[in-house]
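WARN retry 2 of 3 for item q-0093 after timeout on previous attempt; input resubmitted unchanged.
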Amino acid sequence: MRISISSFQKNNVIIAKWEGLLMYIKDDEINKYFNEPNWKVAHNLFQHNTISNMSVIKDGQIYQIVGSTNVNGKIDTATIQVDTGGHILEFNCDCNHCKPNELACGHIGAILLKFYGLEASDLPYSFNQKGNYADQLQALQAKKEAAHLKEQANLTFSLIEQYKNQHRLHQLQLNQHIHLIPQVKSTFNRLSLSYKIASDRSYTIKNLNTFIQNIKANEIVEYGNALVTDHNSKAFDSSSLKQIRFIKEYFHLKDDDRSIRITSDNIDDFFLTHYDNLDININFTTIDLQNFILEIQKDEDYTTIKYKEPDGITIIGHQYIYYFDHYTLNRYSKECSDALRPLLTHLENNSLTIPNNELPHFSKYIIDSVVPYVEFTGDDIDEYLPMDISLLIYVDLNNNNELSVTLDYRDDQGNTILENPKDLVLPLKLDGVIQTLQKYLEYDEITQMYYLYNEEDIYDFITRVLPSLNNDCEIYISEEIKQMNKPKNMKLNIGVRLQNDLLKIDINSINVDKEEIKDILYAFQHKKNYHRLKNGEFINLDDDSIKDLDLLFNDLNIEYNDLKDGEVEVDKYHSLYLENFMNSSSLHFNRDQHFQDLISHIEEKDPEDIQVPQNYSKILRDYQVQGFKWLKTMSEYGFGGILADDMGLGKTLQVMTLIEDGIGENHVSLVVAPATLIYNWQDEIKKFSKKLKTVCITGNIAQRKKLIESIPEYDIVITSYDYIRRDYELYKDYQFYYFILDEAQYIKNQSTKNAQTVKLINGKYRFALTGTPIENSLAELWSIFDFLMPQYLYNYHHFKETYEIPIIKNEDQQKQAKLKQLVEPFILRRTKKEVLTELPDKIENNVIIPFTPEEEKVYLANLSTINSELQSAIQVNHIDKIQILAMMTRLRQLCCDQRILYKDIIEPSSKLKACMDIIETAKENNQKVLLFSSFTKSLDLIEAELRKKDISYYVLTGSTTKIKRHQLVNAFQNDQTTVFLISLKAGGTGLNLTSASTVIHYDPWWNMSAQNQATDRAYRIGQTNNVQVYKLIMKNSIEEKIQKLQEQKQDLSNMFIENNNGSITQMSTADIIDLFK
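OK item q-0093 returned
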């Protein structure tokens, strides 16, 4: 059905879209592109059937419209694009009334009106009285397409040329020693700076902005036959690097593309950057030249000062004044520049007019400041200048112990001036004296004297303020003042003795009673300036001995009220710190013999006196022997400690040696470790020790309770943080000999149940194992020390206020050094680099991981089903190796993560959690990780966890293209990505990944040699770090069986895959059944 559009107004356009019509234009579009006259013309042209030709083609979502109107033989052709949403995209007409894409003419409007009447079934549409406009439209489109293709081809040619030129430049020999030559030019009373770039020859830098962009991009540029550079900063000498910084900062002050104008904004920086440059074409000096001349002209009421400019160029910088003449830039001194800058800045543009009655003040504040640096010419103004005045001050104490100060002004002849001081124009230095007196003293108008009444304020004024005035006036003090001004120092003698595992500190003084020592310390703590003894004498509180004693009290968290008859007690833990303090303090200490013996045993005892247990002497490396002896020494003196060796240096073995060395009656030791490491401890102990009887406290509550009751039968008890928290009531009555926390960062948060529980367990000697005692905050270190030696770092509130806040928020270096001094004796840390020669090239670790109860149920159910199928196959005497591999693969996947087979499981597997612990530890130690797995689905799940933890990674699988594979390897070798996930088939061979120092085998491989080849991706020529290899094995699973078979047989893979002597056909039925037990 056709509709008739009979009325169109500029501000109220009615465009109807009847059901079934496809073509329409939005009202806003008509109002946007048509004015009212043009729209009326369009309506008139349309009504009079002036459209002679029109063609419409739909191209996707766009209508391409071409049409012509014929008015009295004049033909106008228009092209229009409209989308299906009613928007006008483009338009053009060859008449004079159309502005393409801005203002549409009546011809375009008439064609659009005809377009409105079309239905979808009309397309493609062609209306042509004399020809086929559809063909014209297609020809037009073809022409546009050809033009577009030509444009794209030109861009391609340009890109080829760009790469071709880059390739040519890359073939050129780069100059390695480049420097910039600065050139200063003086024109029209201003200075400008340009540069040459030089190696064997020099070339002018024609555009400084382009030069800076080339430096940012390391762009290779051929300045000439003798100079090609990639603008790498390493190629420039140090002087040139300073100039590059200058260009970057001040290029906006350019004169033109090749030069920077030297102005007041950059003159200071220019001088500092270039004064020692040997290539620059000017000289530099720093002299107060005395070339500034001020001319004085005086009349009856006013005096005028004019500035006679020197012949050269004067530039007043923000810090200094400069003068340039005869290719020499002189910088005046800071004193001269500060004195002259305000005056010269004013006089550069204006003379200075001064009322004669203001000349004394002008002289006092300005002339006196500038007279050393300028020459005055013209009229004499001496009669207006202030006279030379000196000041004498008399200080005394009256009978009421009140301070009085009298002032006596003298002229240049030494006569007392009787005028009112307020009427005098005093020299500036005496202004400062008067201001100081007014700040601290009260002035009495009647007596014209200054007074002070408070005793502490009097002491402060006499000892601190009065000496500061001595250079500007003469001071005379009475005998009483002299006595107050010479307080005596307290002579301290401190005794230290060790008694009943406590340190007793006894404080004595030769010249002060013990009873008053506490009062003196209290006065110092409250920042008093002095303390007056009961006998009236003054004690100097600004004395190093009092400062040191207060420092000692603060460091040991001793309250002054704790002093009883000059004596105080502290824990023996502080012995080493106290010894260090005494060696650096100004105080005099007397140590008793017991204390001296303790210190000498710790510091001087020959480690050879401690014997390594015989069965460990050939196992331990040198640094591990040292670690064992350190642990033994610390425990002998009742101290705890942190063994903070790098990951992989054998902390477990060192502790195991210590525990075995201490075997005895009732010497049961407790090890608390993360759940994933419980069985690692057990395996390590079985591997190295035949003496130590070990029990792992795991299982349900009934099983754990039974095991805990049997603790006295064992040497080592191993459990997890989670179990110890749940079972505390069952442990609380036991007294353990050694109490070890593995991965002690698990108690870093003092408020957790884990931390609170382990601190309640009884342990005679306590040690913590962790490679990261501090991960996020100092509070973590406090929490570990609170386990080792409670109260050694005091309560947490005191620790936070005294150390944590000052160090973290205020970056207090002294507090940091003090805390280090406190904790350093109790931490032993060795890095891999330090003990590199003692380390094996490759350290292999089997990480034994228990199933959770839920995981174990699923695994055992599948194992039961597989065993049934296997028994059926055996009964019919038909064992299919493909079937066996499928069974094994299913169990291996369940070991990796049961989500591979069961979509309803949400929680990550125990193995994945243990794997993430290793990866996170490696990341904290800035180590890169290679992770290998047989299953890409395992890699997908690990990838998801890495994303959650925001740990960077790459993935390489069998589907990775060769180019992508090459790019990934190069990127991992050179960037900061932490983890490389690699599938068995994709990355077992042919990769060089020596940037990694940690290798994780997520699941054991059938082929032992293939597993070693994968490890060798990191452990090969070019590796500079020791390689840690972790094999993740689920306890009581097929993975343990595979591991044992690897040890028994050379190549397990060939037994199942290859038809040779090691194939599955050679395995006995008993071997196969044993695999699935």
